[in-house]
Design goal:
- The strands form three sheets. This protein has a two-stranded antiparallel sheet with strand order 1-2.
- The termini are far apart.
- The protein has 33 helices and six strands.
- By secondary structure, the chain is mainly alpha-helical.
- 29% of the residues are buried.
- This is EF-hand domain-containing protein.
- Pfam families: EF-hand_5.
């Protein structure tokens, strides 16, 4: 009705925009010829009440005061492209409008009030004049004033870096007296009140915004940690799904089943956060394509290949099992898929299909494919033509892509549309193109959902820009709306919306943004029509959160985990256990080796092209290099001491010098890892001792042949004389 006519619903045409630019140029030339600058004319003749907007009456009054001879309504109508019935300084001179807005914001941040501004800029000395002169001029002799010199030096000293100081002073000195005082700064108090309202809204939103950001981060941290855990333990997400998450062959997992599976595999993270992160389309369940879209596509193509060539998995297994062994080896499976020209990696698929953990593929491992009905898009190829046809269908039906997204595609306002919602939208619009191919072209990152960014980048960037501006200035779109809604009636008209955006410094496309948000075309916005933007996520947020999530995960890892996995599957425990007690190798070791744990026999020979008995996919299995037992050697060394005999100490051929890891284990309760040294002993001839003559043997050297060492007190002068 009447409210809808408050703004131009159809929007300005290219002809209207060109006419507005030409009129603005002519008007600026006229204002500069009369007042020197557009800003001075705005402050002196147009915006006398400092509300940053003027009506047709105010515009006509100012133009006549400056001697305009024509009809003021004609340039006013050409400049008012949105049909709001109001003009702002931006529509007349956008350059000086930006300068004036930044100067006002700088003033309210630097100065406490109008008197503080005059005091810090430096007031002129009070001139003594007669009472008659004061009465005739109407001046207050005690009024604080600032001239151009003090103004320019003052704002530069206080940090103003935007320049144009002389032009700002000339614009503030509307009377041309060479100074300005409190009467010329009435805008300051109005701007200060606006700043206080904005600051209060921002403080109120700070806690909620922080909590929302932290929730988004912890969701991603939980998902990254869970995937890292599955990758390390099972080697592939599909294999983890088959063996741990859904061993019954169901390709859809309910939340309760996910809780049980995480408990069974020993993942100690927050499963509730994991559910929120995996269920990105808010469907209430988790499918395999949400965990691993690429792996789900591999299974879907394998199922389609079997259905196309054999009909059922039982027939396919019998065809693959040519030797009738009732089990398939890796080589037989690879050869069979190669004969079918299957494009996906056969080795990876073989290990992902095995649900029992054995080395062979049984017929039971394939039966789940018969009951599975994969999504249509898993088998489709990206079709850019179909995606563009879908966009054109939206453009033809709706005035803007943002409105089309909100009305037809994203009904819940989450900025996420899964394949079911997309398919329903195509049926509702009567789209007869390649729906699955269009989806694959739009969902290029295989995230399982599409956003406005994939439909229309320009519209998405406009919403993202508005959201970032609201977050920075008010703490969120919800609190920005509270500031815009001055009357508090939960209704913001286009004039109020446009005025608030201009006053608080939003320089985006206001009219197109309002038209897109005003889905019902009522000419006003309610809170429910804008607060959904706070929950939207945009690509820049994903990049930042991903980097922070990676940093958070890296900080929780041990140095050994940060070094990355070895060439084979690495089994590591965070607490005490075999994987934490890294025992050293015993090749070429010394006497300590027999007391250490046996690690297998080794022989040296030429390496064949393929080692016998080694699976081609040995990376999924543990191997000797997965265990390092150097720490445990410190506990075994005391039981096998080594003794050195001779003049020089003999060193055992033993590795050592490894530092203990910080954490519970033998390395913490044992001495240094270097081999313990036993007490040193040296065998040398004893010195000769003098004995009693009665014990001497005739003809024998002194002290020779005695079985014991005699004490010196039995010899010498006191014992002689016989």
């Amino acid at each position: 009705g009447a409210a809808a006519s408050a703004y131009n619903v159809a929007g300005p045409t290219d002809v209207d925009i060109e006419a507005a630019h030409a009129t603005a140029n002519e008007l600026r030339a006229f204002l500069e010829s009369r007042e020197g600058t557009s800003l001075r004319a705005w402050l002196r003749h147009f915006d006398l009440n400092n509300d940053q907007r003027i009506s047709l009456i105010e515009f006509s009054r100012g133009m006549r005061a400056m001697g305009f001879k024509g009809d003021p309504s004609d340039p006013f109508a050409k400049l008012d492209l949105d049909g709001s019935g109001e003009l702002s300084l931006e529509e007349i001179d956008d350059v000086q409008s930006v300068l004036w807005h930044r100067f006002r914001l700088w003033c309210v941040r630097v100065f406490q009030n109008m008197q503080d501004m005059l005091k810090q800029l430096g007031v002129l000395p009070v001139q003594k004049r007669s009472v008659i002169a004061q009465w005739n001029s109407g001046e207050d002799p005690t009024e604080e004033r600032v001239d151009q010199t003090h103004f320019v030096e003052g704002i530069q000293r206080l940090g103003w870096a935007e320049g144009s100081e002389e032009m700002l002073f000339v614009s503030l000195d509307v009377e041309g007296q060479g100074w300005f005082g409190p009467k010329q700064l009435k805008w300051f108090e109005i701007e200060k009140k606006r700043h206080k309202r904005k600051t209060a809204a921002k403080h109120k939103a700070a806690m909620e915004s922080t909590r929302r950001t932290q929730d988004r981060k912890v969701y991603r941290v939980a998902l990254v940690d869970f995937k890292r855990y599955l990758k390390k333990r099972y080697g592939h997400f599909v294999r983890a799904w088959r063996q741990a998450l859904s061993p019954d062959g169901n390709m859809v997992l309910q939340r309760g089943d996910l809780f049980k599976a995480c408990t069974a595999i020993g993942w100690e993270g927050d499963v509730r956060l994991l559910c929120r992160a995996l269920d990105r389309d808010d469907s209430g369940y988790i499918s395999i394509e949400e965990l691993d879209p690429s792996g789900a596509g591999m299974l879907a193509h394998f199922r389609f290949c079997i259905e196309q060539h054999f009909g059922t998995t039982a027939a396919a297994f019998r065809a693959f099992d040519r030797q009738n062994m009732r089990k398939l080896r890796l080589s037989d499976f690879v050869a069979a898929l190669k004969a079918l020209n299957f494009p996906w990696p056969a080795k990876t698929l073989f290990h992902c299909l095995i649900a029992s953990g054995s080395k062979h593929l049984a017929e039971e491992d394939l039966r789940f494919l018969d009951a599975w009905r994969p999504r249509q898009f898993l088998l489709a190829s990206p079709n850019e033509d179909a995606a563009e046809a879908f966009r054109n269908e939206l453009r033809n039906r709706y005035s803007s892509m943002l409105k089309a997204w909100r009305v037809a595609v994203d009904g819940d306002g989450s900025n996420r549309c899964n394949f079911d919602e997309f398919e329903a939208c195509c049926k509702k619009m009567g789209f007869r193109g390649d729906t699955a191919g269009a989806w694959r072209a739009l969902d290029a990152d295989l995230s399982g959902y599409i956003t406005l960014q994939e439909i229309d980048t320009v519209a998405s960037d406009a919403i993202a820009y508005f959201k970032r501006w609201c977050d920075q200035e008010f703490g969120g779109v919800k609190y920005a709306y509270g500031v815009f809604d001055v009357t508090g009636d939960n209704s913001v008209s286009y004039k109020e919306f446009r005025r608030s955006c201009r006053v608080y410094g939003f320089d985006g496309p206001v009219i197109s943004l309002f038209r897109a948000l005003d889905v019902e075309q009522s000419g006003s916005l309610s809170l429910s029509e804008v607060d959904f933007i706070d929950s939207w996520e945009f690509p820049d947020d994903h990049v930042e959160d991903a980097a922070e999530s990676a940093s958070a995960i890296s900080a929780e890892l041990t140095p050994r985990q940060q070094a990355g996995p070895p060439a084979v599957t690495d089994y590591v425990s965070d607490g005490p256990g075999p994987a934490a007690y890294a025992l050293p190798g015993s090749m070429g070791a010394g006497p300590l080796a027999p007391g250490m744990r046996f690690r297998g026999a080794f022989s040296f020979r030429l390496r064949p092209t393929q080692l016998p008995g080694v699976s081609a996919d040995a990376a999924f299995l543990p191997s000797p290099v997965s265990y390092d037992d150097r720490v445990a050697r410190s506990a075994l060394s005391p039981s096998k001491p080594s003794w050195g005999f001779g003049s020089a100490r003999r060193e055992a051929c033993q590795t050592g010098g490894h530092e203990c890891e910080v954490g519970p284990g033998p390395g913490m309760y044992s001495p240094s890892l270097t081999r313990r040294k036993g007490p040193a002993a040296t065998c040398t001839p004893r010195r000769k001792l003098r004995v009693h003559p009665l014990f001497r043997e005739a003809g024998a050297p002194e002290g020779a042949g005695l079985p014991f060492a005699a004490s010196p007190r039995w010899g010498g002068v006191r014992g002689g004389g016989m």
